[in-house]
Amino acid sequence: MRLVIKKNELLHALQDVQRAVPTRTTKMILYGILLHADYEKLEISAYDQEIGIKTNISSLPDQEDNPLQIEEPGSIVLNAKYVIEIVRKLPQPLVRIDVQDFTAIIHSGNATYTLNGMDPREYPSLPEIHEEVGFTLQADTLKMLIEHTVFAVSNSEVRPTLTGILLKYQEGTISFSATDSHRLAMQTIEVDVPTGYEAIEAIIPGKSLTELAKIIPDDDTLVNIHITQNQLLVSFANTYFYSRLIEGNYPDISRIFPSSFRSNLQIDGKNLLDCIERAALLARDNENQVIRIQLKPSFIEVSSHSPEIGKITETVEPESFSGEAMLIACNAKFLIDALRALGSATIKIDFTGQGSAFVLYELNNDQHVHLILPVRIGNI
Amino acid sequence: MMNWIYGLADMQSFYASCEVASRPEFALKRREDDDNSDPALVVAGDPKRRTGIILAATPPAKHLGVSTAMTLGEALQLAPDLIVVRPRMEFYLQVSVRIQLLMKQLFPLQEQFSVDEGFFAFPWPSDLFPDPIQAAKELKQAIWDQFHIRCRVGMSYNKWMAKMANKAAKTMPERVVWWTENDVTEKLQTLSIFEMWGLKKRARVLHDEFQVETIGDIAKLPLSLVRHRFGVWGEVIHRWSTGHDASAINPDAYHQPHKGLSHRMTLPRDYEEREEIKVVILELLDEVTFRVRAADQKGRRVGLGMTYGSFSGGFYRAKTLDYYTQDTYALYPEVLALLDKYWNGSSVRAIVVSLDMLQPATSLQLSFFDHAPKREQLIHTVDQLRLRFGEASVMRAVSLGRAGQLRDRSRKIGGHYR
User: Fold this and answer.
1) Which of A159, A286, A374 shows the shortest C-beta gap to B366?
2) Closest CB to B333 among A157, A329, A356
3) Exposed end of chain B (fewer CB within 10 Å): N or C?
4) Does the pTM exceed 0.95?
């Protein structure tokens, strides 16, 4: 393999792909990034057998600012940590890479690195996915779906399906749901693009989507999503993102949405978030990060205490309140996560009682919903 | 200025004494002032097997050359007429608790130090304890009157000196010793470093590397040298050698909230199969969570450790969860994940399961998919059954299989039969 490439193009590709390099593994080869060049393009990829990322840089000899000139095809696996550090620090905007057997010589300006590589034939190949069926979203919409839900996935081995986000497509809507069995976050969107799927459900590991959200652009770039029996492929621009799907049945979440409410509240999201964050300071060390919310017709009192540190009480005024007065105790972190996702608009909270879930959503927008189950304290 | 006198009372051949004192044929002949009024008796790990270990021996048995930790076979070769009894751990623990209580009644401060040792402290000078030697003798007499067990008492101006004075009391006819600051040079510092409590292997190092013979020789070494060789311990050892020790009596040592709990089990044979290892892990985890619940706590870091066959290598790994729990069901999958991640497939000799980062349990997070309060009630009910009717009264079916250790373990304390 012999080629000349623009340093920045190479660095960006390496940095994106690096997210699929494991931090700890027993297989040395997985610490590497695979570079493979044919006469048209350079493919840069990494695959830890859970997440795979591939980026192509095309050679465009007819264009004035051609990013890549390939003199001889070939491939090599280079240690991710070193190659990225090296490329980042190269002195000139152009890089020459010459590969002989399993050694890469990297030239830029007067700097020459000779890097020992690994055998590309030992590197695992990415899953093969037929791309005939799929749907398309804007990158920023996909990012929003992930960011509004991914924090609620479970980190526990008790129910492995809950460590993923449930992607559901049916009747012109796509929804992302996540729950750790104590709170649930759900975002739905309408899609009018025709798709090849009748209806589909897939459980995508939360970790994969967290990484995906970091590499998709924050604009209206179109993103194609393909789902097979056990693989997800997301492609955009020149990048392909693969993830394993979680096997098993996601619990039926439709039945956990309460249907009748005893009290409801409208309040400025930002004010409530600030207030909860202040109360949470003293809840940090207790077992369930418990804060208490006393709902009264004229005001809401938020409090928390820590036997060794002290206590805090704060009142906030709602924009409106109707129904019964009640005391709710819940995990402050769950509430903060939900309020951050909902943003600063007016939000609506429906309460069903001390022992059942309360529901948070933006006023007049039931497509973005959060459910939180209270904590039982003492005798309540 | 008022000072405190610290004392350490140590029961003589505790397990063996419990046996002698509780058997009328021996107890009636037993005298406080005559060790030879005891039979030559030993408590042995498993009297049926000659490979059993001697756990305790009466003074006459010791005179015949028998010592603790030798095998029963060796002991019987020295003394064929030895009376051999099997341990009754539960009984010894009951006696131990009552002796500690007795000490608490006699002195303002008391701290259990081990199953057969307890620290006490009283102010000096004071009207209540005008004569320290007399106070110690009264303690000895009270223990003899109630339990028919002999003890020796060392007293001094701090805990460490009391421990050393206790050792010195071994050879005194009254078995009571009181050291003051004036005794450091003549009585403490003349002792061999191999008599110094708390040194373990460091005594050998001090002897071989620094030509130290007595405790006084340590005091003569420059502090920096000892600190350089042993780190923080060097500083402690150096202080001890001049009779200094700042540790206080902690009457609540056994009632502090736990920071972490663990259970370890050495298996009767090497386990090879994941299925068998799983059973023992579950049993250990049940024991850990049972104790955490009994203390009304929850934990969020769960750990698994293994020692491989013939004690060669192993691992200990832990995972921190997002939430606190005291429920085996929440922890078991996490421990199995640790097993699958870190076990290299070797045969397993010993297993340890731990739960730490403990917090008081004050609230209950409800769940969408489980009825959390009902589940809590169920666990509580099983705990109550096990408390009232014994550990083996309710057990998991897997524990009845070949791999299960619970039934056997429930009959033991500290690895020996109740």
Assistant:
1) A374
2) A157
3) N
4) no
* A–B CB contacts, 8 A cutoff, strictly below: 75
Give the count of domains, chain B: 3
Scan residues 214-273 of A and list those with Cβ closer than 8 Å to B: 251, 253, 256
pLDDT by residue (tens digit) across B287-309? 999 999 998 899 999 999 999 98
Mean predicted confidence (pLDDT) in B45-52: 74
**Do B363 and A180 count as a contact with CB atoms less than 8 A apart?**
no
Query: For A180-232, how does the pLDDT look when each residue is reduced to its tens digit (9 = 90+)?
Result: 999 999 999 998 766 666 788 999 999 999 999 999 999 999 999 998 888 99
> Which CATH number fits the domain that encloses residue B33?
3.40.1170.60
pLDDT at A304 over 50: yes
CATH 3.70.10.10 in chain A is located at 259-379
pLDDT in tens, A63-83: 888 889 999 999 999 999 999
| Separation in Å, CA of B304 to nearest CA in chain A | 15
Picking from A156, A159, A282 by the largest number of B CB atoms within 10 A of its own CB, the best residue to mutate is: A156
Last residue of a domain, one of B64, B88, B112: B88
Q: A181, B369: Cβ pair inside 8 Å?
A: yes
Q: Does residue B192 sit within a domain?
A: yes
* DSSP assigned state of B186: I
Tell me which residue in A251, A285, A377 faces B369 most closely, judged by beta carbons: A251
For the domain made up of A259-379, give the CATH fold.
Proliferating Cell Nuclear Antigen (3.70.10)
Phi and psi torsions of A163, nearest 5°: -80, 0
Q: Which of B88, B106, B133 is the last residue of a domain?
A: B88
* pLDDT per residue as tens digits for the range B281-290: 999 999 999 9
User: Are the C-beta atoms of A271 and A349 separated by less than 8 Å?
Assistant: no
Per CATH, is A2-122 categorized as 1.10.10.60? no
Query: What does pLDDT average to over chain B?
Result: 90
Could you list the residue range(s) of the whole structural domain that residue B270 is in?
257-417
Q: Does B398 touch chain A (CB under 8 A)?
A: no
B320 in a domain, yes or no?
Answer: yes
Residue spans in chain A of domains classed CATH 3.10.150.10: 2-122, 133-253
Told to judge if B117 belongs to the known catalytic residues of this protein, a careful annotator would answer yes
Architecture field, domain A133-253 = Roll (3.10)
CATH code where residue B217 lies: 1.10.150.20
Q: In which element (H, E) is residue A263 found?
A: strand A263-268
Residues B268 and B224 in one domain: no
Residue B49 lies in a domain: yes
Assess B344–A contact: CB distance below 8 Å, yes or no. Answer: no
> B359: which chain A residues are within 8 Å (Cβ-Cβ)?
285-287
- Rounded to a whole number, what is the distance in Å from the CA of A195 to chain B's nearest CA? 33
CA distance A180 to chain B (A): 9
* Residues B58 and B192 grouped into a single domain: no
Exactly one of B19, B111, B117, B276 is catalytic; which is it? B117
Q: Are residues B219 and B268 in the same domain?
A: no
